[in-house]
């Protein structure tokens, strides 16, 4: 645990976990302050989880979440009040400790001289240089004196961001390119379903971000606070200004765990789990192995979500494990989805229904999870059936696998780049912004009507790279995206229904039907998912090797 002293009353540090609370108490702290919003990272415990553990050791806990790069005067005042009101000494934390230190620095601006604030922060290992200008400008960030300038700035270092950087680097080897992302780790999220099914090891789905940034691309390890497209500027941590000639936006989705009442208090215990979080996918497999009888519920919220088939993949793999152990007949399986159907593309439904019947699962359509009582093992759903008044139903469970509601990140939703629904507004073919011609987007945050999958990003990356390269050379876009997405539906251990489709649900198989018939479960598709796709991701997609994804050209009129 990395604890850094700021004053006799305050220390700061990076993300704390529930298991850290014993050590926090042993070190003599009497309170903790969380300055990191829940849901920033897939491996991040919620504040409620930390607070519950803190209470066990007699520690008070306060939640003052700050979006990275958006520390306001009011935030600093609230932090100062908390620091004064809580029993001390106090340990404040965020992702790295920078936000907590920034809050302290701003709260002390009228009490301590600037050199002392900067020196204290520096001694603790934090550079407050960005806050100097923030204070000097009364909290306003000028855009006429950028901290850095690049030909291309990419927001997001996930699958889409690194892939498009690698693809663009191939086309423009001399271009000055930067990726902005605060995360130190990068996850192969498509593998978490397999972790929850006992097939993959969680540690094999994670690598350091630094090892994946393409050679020649600058990594700005910071969080984006705001966009100023009229000034061709991105504002990041510490109110630093990054100027660009071309901007590519692809930060991924926010998992809104708080949208379900009581969920965050019980995640990871009481039989409640989710393959949508790195640290919880192993717990899914633990629950599956330990369940011999009772009810298992698998939920799916309103679209859009990452990989529309992932919630039912968890159900199929769990049911298959119970079948193999001979306990399936003693387990009542329910798939509760807020949607009106099992899968959005009808061609794949017959094969999926065969497995629903095989496992004896109950399908509850129009069921949206709204609350969880973990200790009582009760899940509450709002039911909105067509032509009927909304009702609520309660279902008891022994195991509950939750897919949380998902939105664009907050800094995207409040930006001038989005449409009325909060998604980045792009042309669905070229992926160019409809208003700002030097801005492009791909991945999960766009308003394109395609499945939000890693496979979609794999196809989108060379499209955006081709079109940005053309724009850099003064030409019009030359590549178009067809809406391709893929969802390998793991219906049992060893077989997959390989759903591949584009805009409008058009089937877009990669392989001839004689090799893989995507509408039927196959062993070949399983081998693709288990053996081929992971190395294709790490060594192909993230390296700019555009295997099987050459961009379609725009038809000349």
UniProtKB/TrEMBL annotation:
<dbReference type="InterPro" id="IPR005939">
    <property type="entry name" value="BLH_phosphatase-like"/>
</dbReference>
<keyword id="KW-0874">Quinone</keyword>
<dbReference type="InterPro" id="IPR023753">
    <property type="entry name" value="FAD/NAD-binding_dom"/>
</dbReference>
<dbReference type="GO" id="GO:0070224">
    <property type="term" value="F:sulfide:quinone oxidoreductase activity"/>
</dbReference>
<dbReference type="Pfam" id="PF07992">
    <property type="entry name" value="Pyr_redox_2"/>
</dbReference>
<dbReference type="GO" id="GO:0048038">
    <property type="term" value="F:quinone binding"/>
</dbReference>
<keyword id="KW-0378">Hydrolase</keyword>
<dbReference type="Pfam" id="PF04273">
    <property type="entry name" value="BLH_phosphatase"/>
</dbReference>
<keyword id="KW-0285">Flavoprotein</keyword>
<keyword id="KW-0560">Oxidoreductase</keyword>
<dbReference type="GO" id="GO:0016787">
    <property type="term" value="F:hydrolase activity"/>
</dbReference>
<dbReference type="InterPro" id="IPR036188">
    <property type="entry name" value="FAD/NAD-bd_sf"/>
</dbReference>
<dbReference type="InterPro" id="IPR015904">
    <property type="entry name" value="Sulphide_quinone_reductase"/>
</dbReference>
<dbReference type="GO" id="GO:0071949">
    <property type="term" value="F:FAD binding"/>
</dbReference>
<protein>
    <submittedName>
        <fullName>Beta-lactamase hydrolase-like protein</fullName>
        <ecNumber>3.-.-.-</ecNumber>
    </submittedName>
</protein>
<feature type="domain" description="Beta-lactamase hydrolase-like protein phosphatase-like">
    <location>
        <begin position="2"/>
        <end position="109"/>
    </location>
</feature>
<dbReference type="InterPro" id="IPR029021">
    <property type="entry name" value="Prot-tyrosine_phosphatase-like"/>
</dbReference>
<dbReference type="GO" id="GO:0070221">
    <property type="term" value="P:sulfide oxidation, using sulfide:quinone oxidoreductase"/>
</dbReference>
<feature type="domain" description="FAD/NAD(P)-binding">
    <location>
        <begin position="151"/>
        <end position="264"/>
    </location>
</feature>
<keyword id="KW-0809">Transit peptide</keyword>
<keyword id="KW-0274">FAD</keyword>
